[in-house]
Amino acid sequence: MTQTHDYDSIPGTYVYDAARGRIGYALNMFCMSLNKAENRARFKQNEAAYLDQYPLTAEQRRTVLQRDWLGMLKVGGNIYYTIKIAFCDGLTFQDVAGMMSGVSKETYAQMMLAGGRSPDGNRFKDAAKAAE
User: Which architecture, in CATH terms, is 14-91?
Assistant: First the structure.
């Protein structure tokens, strides 16, 4: 991803754009395979062996096996695809969102009901950009 975008300076933001989509193609195709019950069963039986079918990078493979939800987004995963892994584990979107936010799912739910995370300190990674 050589081209920079305004959204690159927003902390904790991994926009799924065309470049990230190209990087994460194999990861997302693996996730889409989990739409089929027989594939979910095979994945849960031997996750590492199942992943061997896909040309994942070492980092993509690590993020799946360690359930590094935020890491999956960083290496090209699309949240709507990667959440299929969570569903295999019996987790909800709210569970994963809480983990990605560093809080319990109950705390995450309350934060969302109260209007979400404060934008203060979350607009730009560098102070110069924040001053604009």
Answer: Orthogonal Bundle (1.10)
Residues in contact with 77: Cβ distance below 8 Å, sequence separation at least 6, in sequence order: 24, 27, 28, 31, 60, 63
Nearest by Cα to 82 from 59, 93, 53: 93
For 63-92, the pLDDT digits (tens) are 999 999 999 999 999 999 999 999 999 999
Contact 108, 98 (CB under 8 A): yes
| Three-state DSSP class for residue 1 | coil
Contacts of 85 (CB under 8 A, 6+ apart): 31, 34, 64, 67, 72
88 and 43 in contact (C-beta within 8 Å)? yes
The pTM of the full predicted model, rounded to 2 decimals, is: 0.80
What are the domain boundaries of the chain?
Answer: 14-91, 93-132
pLDDT of residue 132: 52
- Alpha carbon 49 to its chain centroid, in Å, reads 22
Tokens of 29: 């195709």
Residue range 46-52: mean pLDDT, rounded: 98
